[in-house]
Write a structure and sequence with these properties.
Structural class: mainly alpha
């Protein structure tokens, strides 16, 4: 009777140890998958960082170009305002040239 009980307990232990080994193997596979995805994630983060740096450089270039264009436009506006406010009759007395296509041969 004692041998039957010990065999039953040993059988239960074998089943429990087999189940434990099975779950350890599954856990190991999950950990390996996480490690693989970690390296892929690192690559994605690195490429995102590079793209962000390029975007920041482009924004800086756009700001510089915008400032230059705004300065040029401001100069032209000031010239136009000066010409609009100039009471000088020289602008009105200069003859207007006809375009070449309308000139008589």
């Amino acid at each position: 009777m004692d041998t039957i009980i010990s065999l039953i307990i040993d059988g239960i232990l074998v089943i429990l140890l087999g189940t434990t080994i099975y779950y350890c193997v599954r856990l190991n596979n999950y950990i390996a998958a996480i490690k693989d995805s970690k390296s892929e994630l690192a690559e994605v983060i690195q490429s995102f960082d590079e793209a962000t740096k390029r975007a920041q450089e482009s924004i800086t270039e756009l700001k510089t170009a915008t400032r230059k264009t705004a300065d040029q436009v401001q100069v032209k506006i000031e010239k136009a305002e000066f010409l609009a406010d100039d009471p000088s009759p020289t602008l009105l007395t200069k003859p207007i040239k006809e375009p070449q296509s309308l000139a008589k041969p």
